[in-house]
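Follow-up to my earlier ticket, as requested here are the two runs.
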Amino acid sequence: MTFRVTHIDMHHRRRRLVVRNVCNRAAALAWVEQMYGQAWYLAAMHQIEGN
């Protein structure tokens, strides 16, 4: 599965990225927090992959 993730930290630094090959939303969020640290705001949307 592929998710589009938005991560905003306590300094209001926004990061938007695509996380691929994860089994669910929780795994995508955990991967991003592991990379960038604890988030002030964190959201993930499932991206439907086209042909």
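Run two:
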Amino acid sequence: MINWILASIFSFVVIFAFYKITLYFMKKRTPTYKVKDNTYNNYFVVFETAVIPDIRQNKAIMSNIMIKYTIKNGFVVSSKISGENLKTLLMQQYQLTPKQVQVTQGNLFI
């Protein structure tokens, strides 16, 4: 009976340790990007318009973001400004309504 209890406790400890190690390495895979001591956050920029603007050509936007990759209807970017400010900047630069552009923060697993 004692052996069974000790084996159960040991199994629980091993599973818990494996869980903590997995979480530790998953956090290491999603770093914040540091460029010139400015912390960047990851955002998904999705356009609900027929034509997706090429934000690479806009210097005002590119001075605040780094494009990680393109997706079907937008971009995945790292930005040094907040998501709300990024959305406002995109709306101003391309005369969009709030429903035409969505900016959501997310983790990148790269």
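The only thing I checked on run two: Helices lie at 2-28, 59-62, 83-94. Let me know what else you need.
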